[in-house]
Design goal:
There is one protein chain. The protein has about 260 residues and is an alpha/beta fold. Helix content is about 35%, strand content about 25%. Strands 3, 4, 5, 6, 7, 8, 9 and 10 form an eight-stranded mixed sheet that branches. A two-stranded antiparallel sheet has the order 1-2. Strand 4 (about 100-105), helix 4 (about 110-120) and strand 5 (about 125-130) form a beta-alpha-beta unit. The protein is globular, with a radius of gyration of 17 Å.
Length: about 260
């Protein structure tokens, strides 16, 4: 597997292409590995959520963190890895006109797409900043709530992100994050594939370690709000494993999980 800088370059290039090609219904299927057939197998349906805008939804999430985030009117909300702005617009519907929403993304094409989307809607309390979530470009004690959707698994140093989340949250603030974790080990051939990393799988870490990082950072009242098994289609596995290896992999069908986790500062 490549080092941290090389992995970030791979992720930036992939998601830049997705943003540029987002008129093709926006899912990751054309450039990623997280899909079966024509559908992102990790995606959850936003229909019915207030503030949802289909043209800002690129189909890249693995949960509905804003649904669980307990956002109140007037809150300042930060979305880490905000993409084209989907979760930011849902968060704005919750926090209202007196609140504020800040999206952070390190892919320039995504920031451009998100700013186009917010301009079309005429929102004055939603902004998008270019930056790395390992060093969030906002002041300490800024946010009441932080959300993120299937992004931390793409970051090589997850501990640094949780430390930044802690820094940026106000006292008694909280986060709700949807992400991919593992129960057990992935086959080495999957872990070593860069395209599987940028497709949200091989960058995932063991669930217990993920939750330990949160606790060690100082967060309290840690709750897994939702957990779903992710099943990689055999057609995808054949790109990396032989038939015997696929059989061994399938003997542990619950290895990849999507979780939404909540914690308080």
């Amino acid at each position: 597997m490549e080092n941290g800088l090389e992995l970030k370059k791979i992720v930036r290039e992939k998601y830049g292409k997705i943003a540029s090609n987002s008129n093709n219904n926006g899912t990751c299927c054309s450039t990623g590995c997280c899909c079966g057939g024509e559908t992102n197998i990790m995606y959850e349906d936003y229909d019915g959520l207030n503030g949802y805008n289909p043209d800002a939804d690129l189909g890249l999430g693995c949960g509905l963190p804003t649904k669980f985030a307990k956002i109140k009117k007037g809150d300042t909300v930060i979305d880490l890895g905000s993409g084209a702005g989907n979760d930011c617009f849902v968060a704005r519907a919750e926090t209202g006109e007196n609140g504020k929403v800040i999206g952070i993304d390190f892919t320039p094409e995504m920031i451009e797409k998100a700013r186009e989307n917010v301009k079309k809607r005429g929102f004055t309390n939603v902004e998008f900043l270019h930056g790395d979530i390992e060093k969030i470009p906002v002041d300490s004690n800024t946010a009441d709530v932080i959300v993120s959707n299937c992004v931390l698994n793409l970051v090589p140093n997850k501990q640094s992100v949780f430390k930044e989340i802690y820094r940026v949250l106000k006292s008694n603030g909280h986060f709700s994050i949807s992400d991919i974790v593992l129960i057990g080990d992935l086959p080495e051939k999957i872990k070593s594939a860069a395209e599987m990393y940028s497709g949200c799988v091989s960058g995932a870490i063991e669930k217990g370690l993920y939750l330990d990082y949160i606790k060690e950072t100082g967060f309290k009242n840690i709750i897994v709000q939702k957990e779903t098994t992710i099943v990689l289609p055999v057609e995808e596995l054949k790109n990396y494993l032989d038939d015997n290896e696929i059989s061994i992999y399938k003997s542990n069908p619950d290895i990849i999980k999507s979780i939404t986790v909540y914690a308080e500062k």
